[in-house]
């Protein structure tokens, strides 16, 4: 997965909003610590917004998961299963591995609480394949070298610039940044679905049976 550093996003957002970061080998050090802390907190919110804006292929996973439960308590897969990556949004549950089956068979399910639940069925396999989005990373101002997926980086930076401009009372410019960020997300999505012909996962079945 292509990435950029969090500090590069913060620095560009700071400069785009009309602030001077000075010179030197690492200009991010010239931004006040309080501003970097505030921007990192805002970045976490904006990253989550962009992360969940579309089913970005870089942030999607298809993994085999063990079905837990029994006929008395029902059958389910916890979002947080021991030894496995914690799941974010679930897009599909399949009987077959989509990497080896042209038309994997879907299994009906219900999203309930902290589990993906299935109707009681004696023919439910012991393991299934779950297509899900990983959870957004939580960033800290103490580790600005942490990386952000490139697919959402520019949009996040534009949104952060808008936040800074809004704090400065420049509402019109802040709105313009939000619009630019929205256009950037649409552009990145279109690269996948129109230029590269990748199907969207938004058609996943989310029902009881």
Notes on the structure:
- The two termini are 35 Å apart.
- This protein has 209 residues and is of the alpha+beta class.
- The chain folds into two domains: 106 residues, no CATH class; 76 residues, no CATH class.
- α1 runs parallel beside α3 and α2 crosses α3.
- It is 35% helix and 21% strand.
- β6 and β7 form a beta hairpin.
- The C terminus is likely disordered.
- It is built from four helices and nine strands.
- The strands form three sheets. A four-stranded antiparallel sheet has the order 3-4-7-6, with no helix packed on it. Strands 2-8-5 form a three-stranded antiparallel sheet, with no helix packed on it.
Structure keywords:
209 residues; alpha+beta; 2 domains; four-stranded antiparallel sheet; three-stranded antiparallel sheet; 4 helices; 9 strands; elongated; disordered C terminus
Low-confidence stretches: 202-209
Helix/strand-derived class? alpha+beta
How is the largest sheet built, in terms of strand order?
Answer: 3-4-7-6
* First and last CA, distance: 35 Å
Radius of gyration from CA coordinates:
21 Å
Largest beta-sheet details = 4 strands, antiparallel
Report the mean per-residue pLDDT as an integer: 90
What is the overall number of helices?
4
What is the helix content?
Answer: 25-40%
Strand tally:
9
Approximate strand percentage: 15-25%
SSE series = EHHEEEEEEEEHH
Overall 3D shape? elongated
Number of domains: 2
């Amino acid at each position: 997965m292509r990435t950029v550093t969090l500090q590069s996003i913060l620095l560009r957002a700071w400069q785009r909003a009309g602030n001077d970061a000075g010179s030197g080998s690492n200009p991010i050090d010239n931004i006040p610590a309080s501003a970097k802390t505030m921007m990192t907190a805002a970045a976490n919110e904006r990253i989550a917004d962009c992360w969940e804006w579309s089913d970005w292929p870089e942030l999607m996973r298809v993994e085999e998961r063990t079905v837990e439960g029994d006929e008395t308590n029902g059958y389910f897969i916890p979002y947080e299963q021991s030894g496995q990556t914690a799941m974010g949004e679930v897009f599909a549950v399949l009987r077959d591995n989509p990497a080896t089956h042209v038309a994997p068979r879907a299994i009906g399910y219900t999203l309930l609480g902290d589990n993906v639940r299935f109707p009681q069925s004696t023919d439910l396999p012991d393991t299934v394949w779950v297509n899900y989005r990983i959870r957004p990373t939580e960033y800290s101002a103490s580790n600005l070298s942490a990386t952000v997926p490139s697919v959402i980086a520019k949009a996040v930076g534009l949104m952060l610039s808008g936040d800074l401009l809004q704090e400065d009372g420049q509402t019109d410019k802040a709105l313009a940044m939000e619009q630019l960020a929205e256009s950037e997300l649409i552009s990145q999505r279109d690269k996948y679905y129109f230029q590269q012909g990748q199907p969207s996962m938004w058609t996943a079945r989310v029902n009881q049976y």
